[in-house]
């Protein structure tokens, strides 16, 4: 798993076929149930989910550490302004609250391990294939009342050799194998009880 911005940049400078096309399946399935207000796509990568929401249209802040990933998001073909909005991150490392009309995409190049999220600012937060436990409290505070967190990431059960159907790590080649980057059973329910 890449750790530094440069390692992530190298990954996103790779062949386009390495990246999934279209939104995450669960996002597409849940879309009718999700609030249409300001959204935050954490660790958005090349912006596949951001672009999907903006087409709704929905105002989305796309945050990622990798300039190369965000460059792909800006080139994603959505007919809205996608220049890097430097105002998306304040001088103190706080991700700025959303602004702009529906369908607007704000790009925030930010180290999520150091950034803070604005409180009571988003109706929807997406977090896909990214696990940073120190952000859990910030995510919860960044949601507006009645807001929705859609979280999908890797779990320890996916690499457990005792689990039926998983006999070797080769059965799970694309995700992390370090337990620090894998959710334990019931962990999200405990972290976000309401």
What does this structure look like?
The chain is of the alpha/beta class. It has a domain at 37-153: Vaccinia Virus protein VP39 (Rossmann fold). 21% of the residues lie in helices and 16% in strands. It has a 5-stranded parallel sheet. Strand 2, helix 4 and strand 3 form a beta-alpha-beta unit. Helix 1 packs parallel to helix 4. The radius of gyration is 16 Å and the shape is globular. The two termini are 31 Å apart. Residues 77-86 have low confidence and may be disordered.
Features:
194 residues; alpha/beta; Rossmann fold; 6 helices; 5 strands; 21% helix; 16% strand
Question: In brief, what are we looking at here?
Answer:
This protein is α/β, with parallel strands linked by helices and 194 residues long. It is 21% helix and 16% strand.
Give the arrangement of secondary structure elements.
Elements (H helix, E strand, L loop, with lengths): L4 H8 L12 H6 L8 E4 L5 H7 L5 E5 L2 H8 L30 E5 L12 E7 L7 H7 E10 L34 H5 L3
Parallel strand pairs: 1-2, 1-4, 2-3, 4-5
Helix pairs in contact: 1-4
Taken in chain order, the helices and strands follow as HHEHEHEEHEH
Count the E strands.
5
- How many whole angstroms does the radius of gyration measure? 16 Å
Separate helix tally:
6
Shape: globular
Q: Regarding CATH, which class of the domain at 37-153?
A: Alpha Beta
Spell out the CATH superfamily of the domain at 37-153. Answer: Vaccinia Virus protein VP39
CATH architectural designation of the domain at 37-153:
3-Layer(aba) Sandwich
Helix content: 10-25%
CATH topology of the domain at 37-153: Rossmann fold
Q: How many angstroms separate the termini?
A: 31 Å
- On the 0-100 scale, what is the average pLDDT? 78
Task: Return the structural class.
Answer: alpha/beta
Could you list the spans in which at least 5 consecutive residues all have pLDDT below 50?
77-86
* Assembly classification: single chain
Lateral strand order in the biggest sheet: 3-2-1-4-5
């Amino acid at each position: 798993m890449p750790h530094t911005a440069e390692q992530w940049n190298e990954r996103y400078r790779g062949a386009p076929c390495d990246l999934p096309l279209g939104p995450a399946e669960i996002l597409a399935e849940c879309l009718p149930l999700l609030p249409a207000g300001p959204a935050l796509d954490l660790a958005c990568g090349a912006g596949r989910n951001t672009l999907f929401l903006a087409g709704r249209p929905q105002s989305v802040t796309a945050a990622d550490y990798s300039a190369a990933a965000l460059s792909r998001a800006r080139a994603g073909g959505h007919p809205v302004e996608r220049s890097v909005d430097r105002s998306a991150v304040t001088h103190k490392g706080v991700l700025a609250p959303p602004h702009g009309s529906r369908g607007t995409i704000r790009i925030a190049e930010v180290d999520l391990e150091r950034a803070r999220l604005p409180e009571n600012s988003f109706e929807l937060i997406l977090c896909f294939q990214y696990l940073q436990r120190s952000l859990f409290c910030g995510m919860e505070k960044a949601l507006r009342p009645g807001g929705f967190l859609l979280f999908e990431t890797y779990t320890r059960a996916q690499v457990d050799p005792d689990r039926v159907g998983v006999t070797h790590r080769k059965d799970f080649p694309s995700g992390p194998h370090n337990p620090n980057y894998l959710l334990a059973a019931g962990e999200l329910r405990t972290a976000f009880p309401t």
